[in-house]
Design goal:
This protein is mostly helical. It has helices at 3-13, 26-43, 47-57, 71-80, 83-87. The chain has one domain (3-87).
Length: 90
């Protein structure tokens, strides 16, 4: 099992802060990790950095805790992510 799949499984099995009706489905969590890995690869940066940026953007300590209502915007955020724009936000 790849490290990405193992991490997704670990997060899927973790307790969720949002109420169950707002919790992401396991396939949505896996999708977020897949897009996260794709973005990290294309930007040539570590996956952990992209994950930390996503978690900070949505004020969560774990990708799996992003609410279901934020799933589409989280995917869009990852797709639109550019490191140069993040550096200029400071």
């Amino acid at each position: 099992m790849s490290a990405l799949a193992a991490e997704a499984r670990q997060h899927r099995e973790a307790a969720f802060d949002p109420p169950p009706e707002d919790a992401l489905h396991p396939q949505e969590i896996l999708s977020l990790y897949a897009v996260l890995a794709y973005v990290a690869y294309n930007l040539d940066i570590r996956q952990e950095l992209v994950q930390a940026i996503l978690e900070a953007e949505y004020s969560v300590d774990n990708v799996a805790r992003i609410g279901r209502n934020d799933f589409q915007s989280a995917i869009g955020f990852l797709i639109d992510l550019r490191m140069d724009s993040l550096r200029s936000r400071r």
